[in-house]
Design a protein that fits this description.
Chain B: Keywords: Cell membrane, Membrane, NAD, Oxidoreductase, Quinone, Translocase, Transmembrane, Transmembrane helix, Transport, Ubiquinone. Chain B: The chain crosses the membrane at residues 12-30, 35-55, 67-90. Chain B: It is found in: Cell membrane; Membrane. The structure holds 2 protein chains of 2 kinds. Chain A is 67% helix and 3% strand. Chain A is built from 8 helices and 2 strands, in the order ααααααββαα. Chain B is mainly α. Chain B has helices at 10-30, 34-58, 63-93; strands at residues 4-5, 8-9. Chain B has a two-stranded antiparallel ribbon. The relative contact order of chain B is 0.13. The chains are: A mainly alpha, B mainly alpha. The interface between A and B is large, with 72 and 64 residues.
């Protein structure tokens, strides 16, 4: 533990943002597990995804941070909340929460503060934010990929979309294509699982789902 | 292996990922609502993503971040199929409580 402490020479802004986002991350993760109302845990999970995106931003993995917000906080959470709303028998808990103005105002202030922190982390806390990665070079008019860099088989991890994309499409083409097949199979399976039985007739009409 | 990522020691990230993983496992074990169990699985996958990005940065090798991209795709597929399963089960049993699913018990 002592050597870890001695690694930190100065209390930098990155470290402050790491502790901020780490605390929010752990707190909201605990809230996901221990909240009684599933809708509240879903909202906590959204905050947890956003704070993890902030941590990725601090680490300089900007592409991963973007994908975290797009895929997890966007697509997957829409799916989860949609299913929760379809299944929910306890929607009155949420409306009771929304009727309390103090709670709503404090939650809004917390969200505002949180997104301001995320914005500042992406602006100030990110090292190499305005540096082009190795393996990718912009001249006056053109962008050039240099891959592989001499003597290595992998590009340096600078975390922008260009380097990750170069590694994906040059080194991991086969897994990428397999992922597309897997997504297709998953979508077809989801449709087959969630559709109504075709011959169900009149009783399916007044069923709630 | 670089011990610092933008001024933060690597063990900090790994510790955070470990805590998140433990919370996710706890949620899978103690919760009864199927959708909350799926959310806990997302917590576990996110902690693994954090470990991948940490070592990708620490070892200066981009492959870890490519794997994170794949994990995200797998998580999306898992969420689609799993939630469709939850809806199909809810239509049969009128409940999303995993305690009431005992058809495969023997």
């Amino acid at each position: 533990m002592g050597e870890i402490i001695s690694m930190i020479e100065t209390f930098s802004i990155e470290l402050a943002f790491f502790f901020l986002f780490g605390t929010i991350c752990i707190g909201t993760a605990i809230s996901v597990v221990f909240q009684k109302n599933p809708v509240v845990s879903a909202v906590s999970l959204v905050f947890m995804f956003f704070s993890l995106a902030g941590i990725y931003g601090i680490m300089g993995a900007l592409f991963i941070a973007t994908m975290q917000v797009l895929v997890y906080a966007g697509a997957i959470m829409v799916l989860v909340v949609f299913v929760l709303m379809l299944l929910s028998q306890r929607a009155e808990n949420l409306s009771k929460f929304l009727n309390n103005p103090f709670k709503v105002v404090s939650l809004s202030l917390l969200a505002l503060f949180f997104f301001f922190g995320l914005y500042s982390a992406l602006n100030m806390g990110v090292p190499n934010a305005y540096q082009s990665g190795k393996g990718y070079k912009t001249t006056e008019s053109t962008s050039v990929y240099q891959y592989p860099i001499q003597g290595t088989s992998s590009v340096s991890a600078n975390g922008n979309a260009a380097t990750v994309g170069a590694a994906t499409y040059l080194e991991y083409v086969l897994p990428f294509e397999l992922i597309s097949i897997l997504l297709l199979v998953a979508v077809i399976g989801a449709v087959i699982l969630a559709k109504k039985r075709l011959g169900e007739g009149s009783e399916a009409k007044d069923a709630t789902l | 292996m670089n011990p610092l990522i933008s001024g933060i020691p690597v063990p900090f990230f790994l510790g955070l990922a470990g805590i998140l993983f433990s919370i996710g496992v706890l949620g899978v074990l103690i919760r009864r609502n199927a959708v909350v169990i799926f959310m806990s699985v997302e917590l576990i996958l996110n902690s693994v993503n954090l470990v991948f990005v940490t070592f990708s940065k620490s070892l200066s090798n981009i492959s870890g971040e490519v794997v994170v991209f794949f994990v995200m795709a797998i998580a999306a597929a898992e969420a689609a199929v799993g939630l469709a399963l939850v809806i199909a089960i809810f239509r049969q049993k009128k409940s999303a409580n995993v305690d009431e699913l005992q058809e495969m018990k023997w």
